[in-house]
Write a structure and sequence with these properties.
2 domains; 231 residues
Length: 231
């Protein structure tokens, strides 16, 4: 279910990490820009808005990758696609290493909070700021906050669900912690599916299905590990 280099465009390499863009990102970008073009006086502002989202997601994924390397793990690939980004990280099989590798992504968004909201306050108190520029700054600040809040939901495999699993790993071990985190994640994913139906939102539905499918895969893996561990 996760995107790979197949069907992706290689953009650049930084700090030994290959950043690629899945082709579907471009398609969704065109759709989103078309849908939101009436919010600005020029479509150029819509393009800037989407590129800002791209940058925030990219910084978030670099947070995961660099933190993973800091604890001795492997991280050399980031793929960006319509549902966000995926940093392919393989931290050492320790709860602390896994926790830091996952938590560093949302931490980037936390660091960006005062920067972006400070920029929004400054823009509002400054004379001569174009309405489109002010709207863009406000939107980017809101996007960063929304990504942070959503990612911290305790729904596996979102960052919040993986952080929960890492914290449970300390007292319960790798298998039991994954069982609990994925069970909570499946419940949360079903809730998101219900919300998508209530909102009649195709995009929310796609996201909820992706979360459910990946959480179920992890739940089955935890079940198999538990069976193999039995004497």
């Amino acid at each position: 279910m996760l995107p790979t280099q197949d069907g992706s465009i290689r953009l650049f390499r930084a700090a030994g990490i290959q950043v690629s863009l899945h082709w579907s990102w471009l398609l969704v970008a065109l759709i989103e820009i078309e849908v939101r073009k009436g919010l600005y006086s020029s479509v150029a502002w819509n393009v800037a808005e989407y590129l800002a989202l791209f940058l925030i997601v990219l910084l978030h994924e670099f947070g995961h990758s660099l933190a993973c390397r800091q604890v001795g793990g492997q991280a050399d690939q980031i793929v960006l696609w319509p549902l966000g980004g995926v940093a392919y990280v393989a931290p050492p099989p320790r709860p602390g290493a896994t926790l830091w590798s996952i938590a560093a992504g949302p931490l980037v968004n936390v660091i960006l909070l005062p920067v972006l909201f400070g920029a929004a306050v400054f823009a509002r108190t400054s004379a001569g700021i174009a309405p489109d520029a002010l709207r863009l700054i406000d939107t980017v600040a809101f996007i960063n906050l929304s990504l942070l809040v959503f990612n911290l939901l305790p729904i596996y495999p979102l960052d919040g669900g993986q952080i929960l699993r890492s914290l449970l790993w300390f007292p319960l071990g790798p298998i039991r912690s994954l069982q609990i985190a994925t069970t909570i994640g499946l419940i949360g994913a079903v809730g998101l599916i219900a919300l998508a139906i209530y909102w009649w939102s195709l995009w929310t539905g796609i996201l909820a299905f992706f979360i459910f499918a990946n959480c179920r895969t992890a739940w089955l893996r935890a079940r198999d590990w538990a069976r193999a561990a039995k004497p």
